[in-house]
Amino acid sequence: MWCISSCPAIAYYKPETIQEDLGLAENVFVNSNSSYDSLNNVLFTSELFNWFKEDFNGESGIIDIMRINNVIPFDVVPSIKYESYNWDLKSKNYK
Questions:
Q1: pTM, entire model
Q2: d(CA 13, CA 68)
């Protein structure tokens, strides 16, 4: 199986545990693809968030996601820098 390197991991989800499974997938993706520079108050994250910004309720929604997943503290409002998407292929980007 081949996947794009910057693509979130995809798995088979069972209906009875889908909320927990999606929550874990979100946490792993966000923490693997985001970092916070506290000295400059800048959040670095995946270009996917920029492409689908409106699906996340704009930049304020993206910041909320980062707070919930412990990427940034709850008391900061950082600027956001979107990292380039990696279109390289890699095998076994799934679980």
A1: 0.81
A2: 22
